[in-house]
UniProtKB/TrEMBL annotation:
This is 7-cyano-7-deazaguanine synthase. It catalyses: 7-carboxy-7-carbaguanine + NH4(+) + 2 ATP = 7-cyano-7-carbaguanine + 2 AMP + 2 diphosphate + 2 H(+). Zn(2+) binds at residues 199, 214, 217, 220. Its cofactor is Zn(2+). It comes from Massilia agri. Catalyzes the ATP-dependent conversion of 7-carboxy-7-deazaguanine (CDG) to 7-cyano-7-deazaguanine (preQ(0)).
Amino acid sequence: MQSQDTALVLFSGGQDSTTCLAWALQRYARVETIGFDYGQRHAIELEVRPALLAKMRALNPGWDARLGEDHMIDLGLISKISDTALTSNVAIAMQENGLPNTFVPGRNLLFMTVAATVAYRRGLNVLVGGMCETDFSGYPDCRDDTMKALQVVLNLGMATRLKVETPLMWIDKAQTWQLAEDCGGSALVDLIRFDTHTCYLGERGAAHAWGHGCGTCPACALRARGYEQYVAGKAA
């Protein structure tokens, strides 16, 4: 454990952020969480967060001791200034610029800026996000270069020494499932399967082997394929 460090985890209630939270709880003496209500179409993720945090505490007494305050921030302005498949009821499709319309311009940049502001106030010195350049849809605000540049800008702008950690940056979804197991065993894997939410359409319904969701949107397809590969790798 890095006892000199304290962390703020961007925690949406999905698979990636839950894995990142477990990763942080294994490493830092004090960990807080932050979530954002930005008018997302899949707002069900906000509904699962409180119970998910409570269950994370119950999994490990050490995690319970280190897990601190949760911060929920209203960023509804994002839905007012953007027109995407995650902020309005439109079909998911590719755009002329080569990006899917699930890309919300500026979202992660704003998330990290707000998180850094909260971290400044709370005396936390590490920001943890689930951005990933391996299994992603080409979102430019998920790239390693973007996060490294943002770390520089945040520290210059606030005269701080914040560190941005992205533990999923170079691993695929199957490895993300494995990381969850490494951090919290099969109990955490099962918690992620059935208590987190990833589906872009906000559907829960009956549970699949990999969890709840429509099963067809890009987020569900990626999660399902990763889980299948994870299970296959364990059986090999």
